[in-house]
Amino acid sequence: MTDEELIDKCLKGDGRAQKMLFDKFARKMMSVCLRYVSDYEHAEDVLQDGFIKVFKNLDKFKHEGSFEGWIRRTMINTSLDYLRKGKNAPIDTDISEAEYLASDNEKSLSKLREEEIMALVQKMPTGYRTVFNLYAIEGYSHQEIADELGVTESTSKTQYKKARNYLMNIIIERENI
User: Fold this and answer.
1) What is the model's pLDDT at position 13?
2) What's this model's pTM, rounded to 2 decimal places?
3) Containing structural domain, residue 73
């Protein structure tokens, strides 16, 4: 069944189609939620809230761009809403200033598998993780991140730089063990 057929059946209240839609996208969207909300149980809550929004707003999908991208955007927004509600550390968390690392240390990052990198990203402080995900993974600009999170563009840039340095420090520590 195509996405358009699935959407049409969901809009008509077909419960089986709703379950099919959920089953089709839940795994991918859970990984999106986990990038922002590092606690698995809370990420599941965000996923459920996100799908409630998807089903409530399905009639607003304009069939411009991919349906999966529209769902992803909903999950990102739901994750950010969760973070804004203070259920986690504030977005602009600031831990001790990370050292700037030489670019040849970035070779270490390329040796890691995606799963290992994502596990490290989940251990980042909330502010670092949020900006890192939005910029490096989702492709948002720093201005878009600033608008979305209610911070300045320079705060977004600083948080991203700190996130990269934080990641590199962890990677270098692991290599030196």
Assistant:
1) 92
2) 0.71
3) 3-84
